[in-house]
């Protein structure tokens, strides 16, 4: 069964994850364009529920300027926020805790299903937005725009035409890179028999776990209540673990390190995120652009994506509103250059990962550190942070990186960034 063209809109967005829905919301909310989101129908091909985290201004002014102008992630999607934490903590390799207060920023969690419901409802209320449940089969340029051919759940072939297409689907292979690590993880949503967690404190990195021979590993604990939390084991290394290995390591962390006592696991989540200095092409055609992780929105050295997606969505909306035929990069060149150096230093073992990240939190004011991790610091601030890192190994790596060849790598598998 087939069908010809079924309609047009200014923009078609392929993929209904964080990047696709964030851009759709921004374009429709700002009145920039009419939008159709092509989203995978329910079934085994649809991604499992995911967790996205970011830090945002406490008043919801996510751009960090304090003007309350409503263009920040907290202001836009506060209804979908599951939990927030005013304090951040890191446990060093020696077990010593370091707690920082990044006020006025807070760390926030958004669950993908709540986010989808919120954005879907907003698109349904708007005459300029709609969600189409279908599988995108092909995307191509046509005169005056682009075309997406889809297969609906009932087998019909649908054709959508638009001025622009933004494609968030995972790439079949990663672009060539000098360094490629993977951030791979498995997390449990646990419920304990007694109160074991402080709901005010998020443990971003707990290095009291066995370290792999190559890369680094840490625990990650986000309390949802005194007796509930997301407890996660994460590695930065070249190869993911088996599910059985993750389960064993998580069990050791929960029982021997956190000493949770009796607990039950409600649900689990698992994923793989590329950490690479590859150059992700933002354009796949004259009128086709890539967004999200496929477009380079994932911060190479941390895996954080959600906040960058919000900034990138605002930048794309501004570019379309101004009639520009291209979209800006999700991260600045200077931030990517620093990430390339850090990834190479970690991959070669020239720096000790747990000591490096613990030192960053210990020696850098919290607000400045969060701006640094978001790529929003000035050259002067970055110079000051750099002087507090292992200068010799980092300088050697910085001089080496520009001369390294870029090599192809396979795609890392599935999973959107949880950060």
Entry summary:
The chain has 419 residues and is α/β, with parallel strands linked by helices.
Oligomer: single chain
Distance between the termini: 41 Å
The CATH architecture term of the largest domain is 3-Layer(bba) Sandwich
Q: Give me the count of strands.
A: 18
Number of domains: 3
Shape: globular
Give the class from helix and strand content and strand pairing.
alpha/beta
According to CATH, what is the topology of the largest domain? Answer: FAD/NAD(P)-binding domain
Share of β-strand residues? 25-35%
Order of helices and strands: EHEEHEEEEHEEEEEEEEHEEHHHHHHE
What is the CATH class of the largest domain?
Alpha Beta
Helical fraction: 25-40%
Q: Any low-confidence stretches, pLDDT <50, length ≥5?
A: 58-72
Walk me through what this model shows.
The protein is α/β, with parallel strands linked by helices. The protein folds into 3 domains: 5-83 and 105-174 and 279-321, FAD/NAD(P)-binding domain, CATH 3.50.50; 176-272, Alpha-Beta Plaits (2-Layer Sandwich), CATH 3.30.70; 333-409. 27% of the residues lie in helices and 34% in strands. The chain is built from 10 helices and 18 strands. The chain has helices spanning 18-29, 73-77, 112-125, 243-257, 306-321, 333-348, 353-363, 366-373, 379-386, 391-400; strands at 5-14, 35-39, 51-57, 81-85, 87-91, 97-100, 105-111, 129-142, 145-152, 157-167, 173-177, 180-192, 201-206, 216-225, 228-237, 263-276, 288-290, 407-410. The strands form 4 sheets. It has a 7-stranded mixed beta sheet, sandwiched between helices. Strands 1-2-8-9-10 form a 5-stranded mixed barrel. Strands 3-7-4 form a 3-stranded antiparallel beta sheet. Strand 5 and strand 6 (97-100) form a beta hairpin. Helix 1 (18-29) runs parallel beside helix 3, helix 1 packs parallel to helix 5 (306-321) and helix 6 (333-348) crosses helix 10 (391-400).
